[in-house]
Specification:
Elements (H helix, E strand, L loop, with lengths): L2 H12 L17 H5 L16 E3 L6 E7 L4 H17 L5 E7 L9 H15 L1 H14 L8 H10 L4 H8 L5 H13 L7 E6 L5 E5 L4 H12 L2
Parallel strand pairs: 2-3
Antiparallel strand pairs: 1-3, 2-4, 4-5
Helix pairs in contact: 1-9, 4-5, 4-7, 5-6, 6-7
Length: 229
């Protein structure tokens, strides 16, 4: 990254990226200042493939890959921000968004089933229904593992799917491996909490981690700087 872009990102991250951690630790994520000083090569997520859920132009110059947990309150807030980003940059093909599952089992035991619901929505209705499901669950969940499990099944009908087929899929184990694959890929890339977003600059192949629920202004500054390179 150029020095101006790095300064913008570092300043924003130091200002306060807060997010939950996964696994056995109950501590916060590593210090953003220290993380930002790591070499760029250390940031490496699994490549985006046809198995991923992509919103926008797959050939966009910037691809944001978000690791998220549907019961995370910061993810709920960040979903509004990321929709704003896509409204401004996705419609003209400048930015694409990839969603990957990162359920924090130690504090959000319901998140994996909710993640399965997103995959079932995709199976029964395609990519558009996947994103409709994600938006809806963030709309209705109180977060922090407080969503009534019955409400998850009702989302299928709300977004226009056959509710019985959706609930049958939801209660199966067919997407356990896929969700775990997303989770493990995030762990290997250094994700310790949600939301964690990686910005991939297609032209250079560079990846930058954007930790926490950063405000729209911070994401916008990064995108504008990257597009200007």
């Amino acid at each position: 990254m150029t020095v101006p872009v790095a300064i913008i990102i570092a300043g924003a991250f130091i200002a306060g990226a807060i997010f939950y951690t996964s696994g056995k630790s109950n501590t916060v994520a590593p210090n953003p200042t220290a993380e930002n000083n790591k070499k760029e090569e250390a940031v490496k997520i699994p490549p985006v493939t046809a198995k991923d859920h992509i919103l926008g132009n797959p050939n966009a110059p910037i691809v944001l890959v978000e690791y998220s947990d549907t019961e995370c309150p910061f993810c709920k807030n960040f979903n509004t921000t990321i929709k704003q980003v896509m409204d401004q940059y996705g419609k003209d093909g400048k930015v694409a968004l990839v969603y990957r599952h990162f359920p924090l089992d130690s504090i959000h035991s319901k998140a994996r089933r909710e993640a399965a619901g997103a995959e079932c929505a995709n199976e029964l209705g395609g990519n558009d229904k996947f994103w409709a499901y994600i938006d809806r669950i963030f709309e209705i969940t109180p977060s922090n593992n407080n969503l009534d499990p019955a409400k998850v099944g009702e989302i299928g009908k709300y977004i226009g799917l056959d509710q019985k087929a959706f609930e049958t899929c939801l209660d199966s184990d067919k997407y356990v491996a896929h969700i775990e694959e997303d989770f493990q890929g995030g762990l290997k890339a250094g994700v310790t909490g949600t939301p964690s977003t990686f910005a991939i600059i297609k032209k250079t192949g560079e990846q930058t981690m954007i930790p926490g629920a950063q405000p729209f202004a911070t994401i916008k500054a990064f995108i504008d700087s990257a597009l200007a390179k």
